[in-house]
Amino acid sequence: MSLPQLNSVLTINRLPASACSSITFKQTTDAVSLHVSKSAAHSEIPTEQTLRLLLEGETQLRGRLLSGSNAVYLVDLQMNGLIAKAIYKPVLGERPLWDFPPDLSYRERGAFLVDKALGWNVVPPTVLRKDMPFGLGSVQLFMPSDHKHHYFTMIANDHLRPQLERICALDIVINNADRKAGHCLLDDNGEVWAIDNGLTFHHDLKLRTVIWDFANNKIPSSIQHDLQRLLDSGLPDQLKRTLAPVELEATLKRTRELLLAGHFPTMSRSLGSLPWSLV
Ligand SMILES: Nc1ncnc2c1ncn2[C@@H]1O[C@H](COP(=O)(O)OP(=O)(O)OP(=O)(O)O)[C@@H](O)[C@H]1O
Ligand SMILES: [Mg+2]
């Protein structure tokens, strides 16, 4: 991978606390900082407006996050008085993988589309954009979160379990091959977000996740209802345009089988069912 280097780009290992405080929701005279929330009580900006900002906002590259194995950039977006931070993952910066083609950005977007169709709002708004500094890539709303928390700390909290259950079900549907604990973020409103959804939708079963606490549990009826609705309405049109037919069919098959089972699956392949690293 050779990406152009920008001298002005600042390098970030982990987002410093100062970066986080500057993105908390603040209303200034000239701009409203964008915050997306699942609950109507917290919601300030409708998702459609968020998506437009991600898709069309004027972009400024702020830095590269070195924690990812792919090239991952923090960008500032601005449009019509709205500002937001986002995570940009260019196709050019993807580390080649033996089992996935270089199109993880499409899969990042696909995970958002399926989550949206299910009505779960666990994946931050995500778009695909070509007019970015390093070309085509996914642009996902940056979710400020408490880095002390990850899946293994959250699962102990009963209030968070329903959200984690939905992430568990989503990962089975999209066949997530890399659900690390640290890719479940907890925001200030107690909402859990699932990030890094690129290794998904493979036609072979590749579920690798840390979320096995629900194994054998009955799938809650609300989740069953949403899965059935997805099957009834069909997969989102945009997903149909970006995934291979065999991947689309496999997605429907996993959804049907999960519904039919009525229970969350158990770990089948011992260590092969876990991602590396775990957090
Ligand atoms: N939407 C988001 N909101 C907040 N932080 C994010 C978001 N997306 C990514 N990050 C941050 O960027 C880091 C790297 O992103 P990501 O994990 O998606 O990249 P990756 O190259 O696939 O990483 P990995 O090698 O861990 O799979 C994450 O660990 C997280 O700290
Ligand atoms: Mg990853």
How does this model look, in words?
This protein is of the alpha+beta class and 279 residues long. It has one domain. The protein contains 8 helices and 9 strands. α6 (221-233) packs antiparallel against α8 (245-261). The protein is globular, with a radius of gyration of 18 Å. The protein starts with 9 loop residues before the first strand and ends in an 18-residue tail after the last helix. The model is unreliable at 1-32 and 39-43 (pLDDT under 50). The protein binds adenosine-5'-triphosphate (ATP) and magnesium ion (MG). Magnesium ion binds next to loops.
**How would you describe the shape?**
globular
Integer count of domains: 1
Total number of beta strands: 9
* Sequence of secondary-structure elements: EHEHEEEHEEHHEEHHH
Helix segment tally: 8
Strand residue percentage: 15-25%
Query: Helicity range of the residues?
Result: 25-40%
Q: SS-based structural class? A: alpha+beta
Largest sheet report: 7 strands, mixed
Low-confidence stretches: 1-32, 39-43
How far apart lie the N and C ends?
25 Å
